[in-house]
Fold:
Amino acid sequence: MLTSLIRTVILLFVIIFTIRLMGKRQIGELQPGELVVTILLSQIAATPMQDVEIPLLHSLVSIFTLTGIEILLSGISMKSVKLRELIDGRNVAVVKDGVIDQKKLKSLRFTVDDLLEGLRAKDVFDVSLVESAVVETNGSLSVLLKASELPFNNSSAGINVPETGIPQVLISDGRICSENLKNAGVNKKQLTEMLKKENASVEDVFLFTVDKTGKTFLVKKEK
Amino acid sequence: MTKRMIAGALCILTSLAIGVFGWLYLKNAGNELISSAEAALSSGDEEFFSLAEKAASEWDKRDKLVGAIIKHEEADRVDKLYLQLKEYIKEENSETTAFYLRRCVSEIRVILMGEKPGIENVM
Structure:
C-alpha cells in the first residue's frame, strides 16, 4: 500500500513536469500528435500506479522518451511545414465562397449534421450566412460570415476608440497585487489616492482594477 | 524554443542512458551470477559449499538494482530461489544445493533472454 502511495506521488510529479515541459498547447488545443502523446502518457502513468509489479523505471523511461520525442517533433515541425502536415494534417475548407464542398465533407467523414452542429456551436444557425468554414487540424470549425452578416462595430462605423488593454487587478480580496501595479504603471501613492476617491481602504476592497485609459472598477467586500 | 528542444533532447538522452545502463548492468550482473553458480557446481566436494555460499552472496549484492530493472515478479522468484539455496547450504545438503544452484542459473538465463533488446523481445 505504502509502495503504491509513493509510486503515485512520484508519477504524478513526473507527469506534471513533463506536461509543463511540453507547453501550454498540450492542455488547450490538442493537435492529433499531441492527443496521441497525452493519451499514451496517462496510460503509461496509470498502469504502474495500480500494478506494483511493474518497475517504475520502465514507466519513467517510456514517459521521458515520449516527452522528448514530442518536444523534438513539435520543435522541428515549427520549421518544417511538410512534417507539420504529416503529423497534424492540414485544415480543410468545407464551405468556400458560400458553397458547401461535399467532396471535402465526405473525405473528412463529416456529415451535414456535423457541419450544422459545428456552425451552431459558433452561434451560426443559418448555413446561407456562411462565406467560409474551415475544419482545423484539431477538429474545430472556424467560420467566416458573409460581409453583409458581420456584426456592426466601431471600425465599420469609422469611430476611433482608444485601446483599453486588459484591466489589471490591483487589489484582490484585500491584498495588493504588486506585479500588476508595476504592469499598470501605478505606484502605491497613486493607488492610495485612487482608493481615497472611492472612499475605501485596501482591506475593504474585494476587487479593484484599472485599465490603460485609467478607468477603474471597484467592488467592496461584503460585510 | 532552443531551450525546449534541449530539454526534449535531454529527456531522450536520459531514457537512453537508463535503458543502456539497465541492460548492461543486468547483463553483467547476470553473467557474474551464472558464472559464480557454475563455479560452485563444477567444484569438488571440499570447495562446493563455500563456493555455493559465495554464489548466494553475489545475489545479495545485486538484488536491489536488479530488482529495480526487471519485473518485480521475476526478481521475487529469484529472491525466493536464493533464499531456499541458502537454507540448503546451511543444512549442507549437496544434492539439493546443486539442484537450486541450477534452478538459479536457469532462472537468470530466462530473465536475461527476456530483457535482451533483440528483435524477439522488441516485437
Summary: The first helix of chain A runs from residue 2 to 22.
